[in-house]
Design brief:
The protein has 112 residues and is α+β, with helices and mostly antiparallel strands. The protein has one domain. The chain is built from 2 helices and 3 strands; from the N terminus they run βαββα. The longest helix has 21 residues. The protein starts with 6 loop residues before the first strand and ends in a 14-residue tail after the last helix.
Length: 112
Amino acid sequence: MENIENHDYKVEPIPNLSNKLLNSRSIHVRSAEMVQKIIENESKGGWEFLDIKTIRIPIRRTFLRSATEKTISLIVFRRSRPAGNPETILKQDSIRQFGAESLPSLGPATKD
């Protein structure tokens, strides 16, 4: 079994299809095409398709609505983490995610 610490993971929601489709065959074809496009786009960025998970999210009861659940599907990707010093890897990841010029300056910690 592979060590989870050697990979970065990314989870993206699968968008809902519109209800404008005419028959069940076209729903299956459109959903397959949509998932294929998502996988192709992420693979260009170095991400490997890992799994699709469907989960239920509880929605709290409000004044006008009773408690419900919403079912969503998530697509999971991973990529190998480069070997090296963990601090260097974390710094590279933050620069890749935020860009070098937009990293926030947190300054020193102060006690209030």
